[in-house]
Design goal:
Layout lengths: L11 E5 L15 H10 L4 E4 L11 H15 L5 E4 L5 H13 L4 E4 L10 H12 L7 E5 L1 H4 L5 H11 L3 E6 L4 H10 L5 E4 L5 H6 L4 E4 L2 H16 L3 H18 L4 H11 L16 H14 L1 H4 L11
Parallel strand pairs: 1-2, 1-8, 2-3, 3-4, 4-5, 5-6, 6-7
Helix pairs in contact: 1-2, 2-3, 3-4, 4-6, 6-7, 9-10, 10-12
């Protein structure tokens, strides 16, 4: 397949997938198919593998390749699989990119190196060009997450330069809270480029500024809530859209009272998908924390909401 700008744009909710692990922190690849089935049952429209949510930076290069293969196999062409290949070593990132192309990933994505901070657009384009050219037949999305990479390069300028130098550039995963910059990115690019939202608690605002797709962590556990935000917005039922977005915010606020990713993995287990703990430095919840998490989510109505029920118990 010739890459890129002609490939279909991403749409809907794309889950930033968690990495199933055994209690000792080893990969538990046997659970990947169950996780994929759970997500597709929630009408997830894509999978973003080995990102921040999936602890990609805590995995070895070999483990990331094994995990990418497991998700591509489990998805079996039912939804796009985007493999995050960013690495502090650009040579490792290139190896991961080449591997992702060889297993048939729909697209690759990459953070920039983060130990040595990137402060200007030209350097960022240089780095991402190194990664993208290792998979010359696969669409490429830059992963902008300045809170973790420390790179605050202006994204509209990056996209302008990258469009000229990265033939496989397909778009951007925008994980920041600056709706004005997100809007500027969409306005600064051609219709061929895909700017995807990455902040779950602000999905409604992103829809209002033109988002067609979103990638996020809490779509693993609360996709039905976000689907109602999208459906209500599409129907111009803005009161209902705000109601369901607020419920998503309430869920995230509860999750934020605990170590976030271990807590989200714990909720997946409550939903019947045993993804296990996180690796250090993220760790796991104590039994006391687990009980408190379940109680707090029950108190706000999360488990009812995620079954498609409102506070009166009316079905979706």
């Amino acid at each position: 397949m010739k890459p890129t700008n002609s490939s279909p744009a991403l749409s809907g909710l794309i889950a930033a997938t968690y990495t199933p692990m055994h209690s000792n922190g080893d990969l538990n690849l046997e659970v990947v198919s169950s996780l994929v089935d759970h997500l597709l049952g929630s009408e997830i429209s894509g999978l973003y593998v080995c990102g921040s949510t999936g602890e990609g930076m805590s995995l070895t290069t070999g483990e990331r390749q094994q995990l990418a293969e497991a998700f591509v196999d489990a998805a079996n062409h039912r939804v796009p699989v985007i493999v995050q290949v960013g690495h502090n070593s650009l040579r490792d990132a290139r190896e991961l990119a080449t591997h992702a192309e060889s297993i048939g990933a729909h697209a690759i994505s990459a953070t920039c190196p983060s130990y040595y901070k990137i402060a200007d657009s030209d350097s960022l384009v240089d780095c991402m060009c190194e990664v993208a050219t290792a998979a010359p037949e696969t669409p490429f999305y830059y992963y902008h997450i300045p809170a973790l990479t420390g790179s605050s390069v202006e994204m509209p300028e990056f996209l302008r330069l990258a469009t000229e130098r990265i033939p496989t550039l397909r778009g951007l995963k925008y994980t920041d809270t600056k709706l004005h910059e997100f809007m500027a990115c969409k306005n600064a690019t051609s219709d061929d480029l895909d700017v995807v939202w990455g902040c779950d608690e602000m999905l409604l605002g992103a829809l209002a500024t033109g988002a067609n797709a979103a990638i996020g962590s809490t779509y693993n556990i609360a996709a039905n809530i976000y689907q109602r935000v999208i459906e209500s917005f599409a129907a111009s039922d803005f009161d209902n859209a705000r109601k369901w977005q607020l419920r998503a915010v309430e869920v995230i606020r509860v999750m934020g009272q605990f170590p976030f990713h271990p807590a989200t993995k714990a909720v997946l287990e409550m939903q019947g998908v045993p993804v296990g703990p996180c690796r250090l430095p993220l760790g796991r919840l104590s039994e006391t924390q687990l009980k408190s998490l379940r109680a707090k989510l029950t108190e706000i109505g999360f488990f009812n909401w995620n079954r498609g029920e409102d506070t009166t118990g009316a079905s979706r």
